[in-house]
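Let's sit down with a protein and look at its sequence and fold side by side. Go ahead whenever you are ready, and we will take it from there.
>
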Amino acid sequence: MADNTQLTVTASARDINQAPRKVSLVASLVRGRTVADALTILDYTPKRAALVVKKAILSARANAGHNFRADEKTLVIAELSVVAGPRLKRFRAGARGMAKPYQKKTSHIYVTLAGTAKQRAVKPAAKTAAKEEK
């Protein structure tokens, strides 16, 4: 039988309406852990960014299971990066009719999982040879 093959799966969550500095605090909690441990940690993290990071990890896990037939018990977060997205420039009313500029920051989250693929069931050669002879 063939040995299990290593695979990497990616997922991304783009244009998150939260500053990358705040999201990266949550991302550093789960970086390098197994997916099951990371999801447990994020369930009990009292930050708004925990939900977004959790959704990105769940998306990567679903990609691994559906697209690559990965064994979900072996999945590990190989890479979890938070990058600054585009900034929305806005103005707030100030004193004496002035406009005070500010920027709404956004983030991109990129998740890469590493794991092994499940073995496919191989039919015995004797049964297939018997069918061909008939």
